[in-house]
Amino acid sequence: MPGSKVGTSARVKGPTTGRVRRHSVEVYERDFAFTPTAVQPAPPPPPAHPPRPLGELSTAPTQEIAELTGTAFGSLTRSSSRPVEGMRKLLEILEQFPGSTWQDRWEASGLNERGRLAKDLYPGTSKAIMSAVNTAAGHAFAMRVIQPSLLAFRSYRFSDYVGWFRQLAQDPVLEEFFERTLKLPMSGASIRRAQFDMCIALTVFGIDIADLTPEALLHYAMESRKYGVTPGEVAADGCFAATQAWVVLSEMGHFPASTPRTLRGAVTRGQRTVAELVDKHQLRNQGVRDLLVDYIGRRSVELDYSSLTGLVNNLVRLFWKVIEEFNPDQADLRLTAEAVAHWKEKLLVNRDGTPRLHLDAPFMVVRAFYLDLHTWAVAEPERWAQWVAPCPIRDEDLRWFHVRRRRLQERMANRTRERQPLVPILSQHVTDQWHRWRTLLEAARAVDLGERFTVDGVEWQRVSAKSDVKRPDPSTAAIRAVNRSTGELVQLTHTENQAFWQWAIVETLRLAGLRAEELTELTHLSVRNYQRPNGEVVALLVITPSKSDRERVIPMSAELFHVIAQVIRRHIRAHGTLPVCTRYDLHEKVWSDPLPYLFQTVHSGAVKAMSNTTMWRMIHRAADGLVSTDPRFAEVKFASHDFRRLFATELVNNGLPIHIGAALLGHLNIQTTRGYVAVFDDDVVRHYQEFLARRRAQRPESEYRKPTETEWSEFNEHFDKRRVELGSCGRPYGAPCTHEHACIRCPMLSINPKMLPRLDELEEDLLARRERAVGEGRRGEIDGLDLTLTFLRSKREQAQRFQRTGPVPLGLPVIPHQKPQVTGG
């Protein structure tokens, strides 16, 4: 059927008439990160019975179509005659072009191309006539008189095409789709975008919704991305169309059960083969290309996918591709001195012109490549011997390897040193922001629409959007409020949600020291508890294997437990339980099994686990909010791993043995932990040496055996002895009190919120003593009392944060026939 193909090359490359186009066709050349695998995009076949809401009009007379237009759309305009006149003028001009149908004449006129508007056929006329003709084109699309291409349709801006199309279609399935979109937990703009996508797809394909297949909708989404005409797209950012519509159709059961539930799942390519990874760089020499494919394929057996892509990048893009650019006729691996010098010179600079800081990885990969060929040639000379050549990496190239490693360590230590004083500020900022927006949201939720309320001396008024009234359940609409003083309109539901997840991500990273991937992999099953013989329950967090491929269990502090409890409470309040969703691993390029992930959110109408990219954006957004008040945040960018290094630094410098810190961080080598806290290298060495000396003196080798009942009882009693007046002490077993029981100054003390009145009494006593010391001139005692007051107030603020939230039912999942195992230090 004419016009059934969306954005085809025949419609893009040239007009069907001799007219000069006013707008050149600009095809967006994108390096697609997503390639469909689960569903292959394809336009639908021509339907056996094309939709004709007003009858067969492909060859109808002008006057008949104009009268039908007035009947269908006259009530929607101020002047009932305007749609009739606009349609008559459009068809009269189309009659001048050859063709037996209106579709043929539309294509012959050149209006089926990008940038050609119907009003261009009336140059010099009034704006009212030009506007009426453009509107008539939209009416003709909705009446199915003309079937436009995607690029032609997206050249127009219609006032209410969804309303026109829906009024004429009168399709029960389409009506069900519209009703379901109104129930989506999304903004009104996203809902309108889903409805608009559906109407566009059905119009350009010339079908009813019953004929819309996953392949056809994916074809529409891919073409919209390719040509940069996705509805709602900003600055051609390359987003996909129909993401919300896809979810609704899946929930309706319109797509087969085997179809991915989200469009992202349908377009995600997943892992590529070694040949595909190598061919992406378009090497000239086929022999070297085959060699690299075979070599990397042999090495891939012992590598995960992330390491495999790194090997391809270092060996193909950063090495051989540069060699071929210097000498396109290079036929083997025996390189000239000039080629080697050129490669090493190019390696010093990144693509963006900045100096490359990590030279060792490409050097070591190329060196291993040549040496592996030497070794393999002995065992398989018929396969590898012809490629044996001198290695371009000389001993002098690696002579400064350890120096570069020290420089790298110094940069990381300096990075930690710069960010350490900023973390408390960032933590306080995200906490204050969340509490502020949560208070506003709760106050707005407590009043009706149009009513005013006051929070912190500022008067607000609750308002709603027009689209909220159309929802089947208005209570599911987002809560909005207007600041009566400034006129600022705030979408409180969205803003509070963003503030909460910024707080949850920053606090979890700060308090647990997790890797980015480990944070996104936390599930409801990660929260465990261990009950001691005396009845005390210890909260544990199970970290799934990631980088070191080792599972570990860490005890949660009261602050960390509070954060995790708030995350679980939020999901239970919104869904009744933790929803089960899938997670896409950006490094391994695979989808996980459905699990109740803690860090999940709603995207395009579907629940999905947060990605590393989402988490990274949350951290940056939180830090950017402090730039106006603290200029230091404009120059310092936080990464998720910065919190891990700061966590390790704080642990070790507070007296925790470094081997226990390594267990908590999941490091296989204690030297790795040392590198994390190198900013305080002297402290690390001192603590580590003191620990070794103490362990060797107190625990001879013969005592490394299974403890007796008496010893186990003494071990449990240790935790009872850690109870003090103000709360509990967190020092490890067998460690003496290094602060001589000056608990208020000790960082290991956890304040019981019930003891807040006692802290007030201690503060009054300290202030009285300080006043007396000032009067008697005891300056040394004044400094000591000031330090004690600082610690006291800090611990009081910490205890007050815990007191804000009462008991939280975590709904811990029960795992039958399994007992939680406690590992680590």
Q: How can the largest sheet be summarized?
A: 4 strands, antiparallel
The helix/strand class is alpha+beta
Q: What percentage of amino acids are in beta strands?
A: 5-15%
Q: Distance N terminus to C terminus?
A: 71 Å
List low-confidence stretches. 1-33, 817-825
CATH-defined fold name of the largest domain: hpI Integrase, Chain A
The total tally of domains equals 6
Text of the CATH class of the largest domain: Mainly Alpha
CATH architecture descriptor text of the largest domain: Orthogonal Bundle
Report helical residue fraction: 40-55%
Describe this structure in words.
This protein is an alpha+beta fold and 825 residues long. It has 6 domains: 34-49 and 170-268, no CATH class; 54-158; 274-399, no CATH class; 423-641, hpI Integrase, Chain A (Orthogonal Bundle), CATH 1.10.443; 642-703, no CATH class; 716-803, no CATH class. The strands form 5 sheets. The protein has a 4-stranded antiparallel beta sheet.
